[in-house]
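Thread: aspartic acid complex, take 2
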Amino acid sequence: MKVAKFGGSSVASATQFRKVADIVSSDVERRIVIVSAPGKRFKDDVKVTDMLIQLAQAVIDGKAYDEVLDEIVKRYAEIANELELTAGEFLAELQDDLRWKISEYRNEPCRLMDVIKASGEDHNARLMALYLQETGLEASYVSPREAGIFVTDEPGNAQILPESYEKLYQLRNRRGVLVIPGFFGYSLDGHIVTFPRGGSDISGSIVAAGVKADVYENFTDVDSIYCVNPSIIANPRKLKEITYREMRELSYSGFSVFHDEALEPVYRAGIPVCVKNTNNPAAPGTWIVAKRNHQEEPIAGIASDTGFCSINISKYLMNREIGFGRRVLQILEDEGISYEHTPSGIDNMSVILRASQLEGEKEKRILDRIQTELEVDEVNVEYGLALIMVVGEGMERTVGMAAKATTALAKANINLEMINQGSSEVSMMFGVKEEVVTNAVRALYEAYFQELPVGNSVK
Ligand code: ASP
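Output below.
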């Protein structure tokens, strides 16, 4: 049995719906389909999820919202009309549902935002089920509640509850193709709660693990995963295979093709993932597996992301002070801040985090607390940092991997702000100023990939 998840661009228009129907009907193993909300049809298009957020925000701010609501309904109507579906009832229900949610949750902004956001996927799954039926498939819409996707009650940040898996397994007994909306589940007391943005990948992975699928297929709009962002390097190597650990590191640090939280359920269940292109389903795609066959390439990919900052702390004899690091991190925990890395020296320590977390008064509060409670010699925040991750399982057994990077960066005249390698040796992190990150990634790509044989890459 295969679970196939179709991302926003794969379900953005009638043309894309037709491609999905062809893909689903071409393989009887594709029994469960997870869909996103309609995404972008062209570069500057707006995703339905973003329109829904705009709608909820207008209600919360007490502003007019009829126009955006009509736009949302129009997006679905266009798809339905072009598919020549008799969708009058579906469209009326969509309108009523959005208006009902607005009146029901008006005074609970957090809930309102979540239920409205989730409706993008919900209605798209209903529409997809209608269309698949129309093409002659035995298909039905299954709500996440009926399927058994139970989650923690954290709006916009739901986490799956373990009891879901047993219920999900029962989906195996159902007939036909089941269409389940991605992106949300239900709390135990019946509230709709969404995963983080891009969370339909997470839904697909949970369902695949729950039904113990043979494969989790993740349909998107690229033929395969590239070893580096193609907007930085033209035509980079396409990967045949990548391990769960490599993918997790890469997607966390900038690869947008797969949500970084989505791997856990399939990884634990040992289910291989195949990332495929809805627009070119014949291409082999990229396999995400426990162990790659092509081990001749120590590095799988290079990812980068901007928008980080570093809180730099120094204090003479810091190394002698028991509990120093814990107290710094406690201050961050008190402020609800998560951190990425903590490179340190004997008398200094840095904490790298996403700069957006220090908005408003937080920065001053944190620096004041570190200064007074830990009596440090100096504490400051450095903004404008980019992190680059060089990721690969083979790094552990290959000598000279770090030297290759530092030599390449030095040759490109790039100053390294910091270096970090965890004990797993699956990745190396380099911190550079944001303005040089593109050049740094290019230099690293040349150093690691330019001279490699074809090996793990698809031509
Ligand atoms: N529609 C949601 C988003 O845009 C979830 C998803 O597509 O995975 O974030």
